[in-house]
Amino acid sequence: MQLITFKMKGQSLKRLDEICRTFDFASRTEFMRQAIRKMVEDYEYRIAIRNLKKLRGSSKTTTSDEELEKIREEVARELYPKFVK
């Protein structure tokens, strides 16, 4: 691991400490790691959606509403555990 140092204003740091106590984070560092992991996941999700949008309409076949519903359910079962923690 590498050390990262940054500055925060007093009021923001005070709020961070309150959140850490409220949600039982062992330290500010633990909170920051989790916050960064969450942001990375969010950006990866946005990138995936952007890439999917590029593909929209590029298929040469048609898909029925029933097939689309089955696909949605399958994707939801696969992705749900990754976003609910």
Q: Topology, pairings included?
A:
Elements (H helix, E strand, L loop, with lengths): L9 H13 L5 H28 L9 H19 L2
Radius of gyration: 20 Å
Sketch the major β-sheet. none
Name the structural class. mainly alpha
Catalogue the unreliable spans.
Answer: none
What is the overall pLDDT average?
91
Number of strands: 0
Q: Strand-and-helix sequence, N→C?
A: HHH
Content of β-strand: under 5%
**Broad shape:** elongated
Number of helices: 3
Terminal-residue CA separation: 24 Å
Helix content: over 70%
What does this structure look like?
This protein is an all-alpha fold. The chain has a domain at 8-57. Helix content is 71%, strand content 0%. The chain has three helices and no strands. The chain has helices at residues 10-22, 28-55, 65-83. The longest helix has 28 residues, at 28-55. The protein is elongated and about 55 Å long. The chain starts with 9 loop residues before the first helix and ends with a helix. The mean pLDDT is 91.
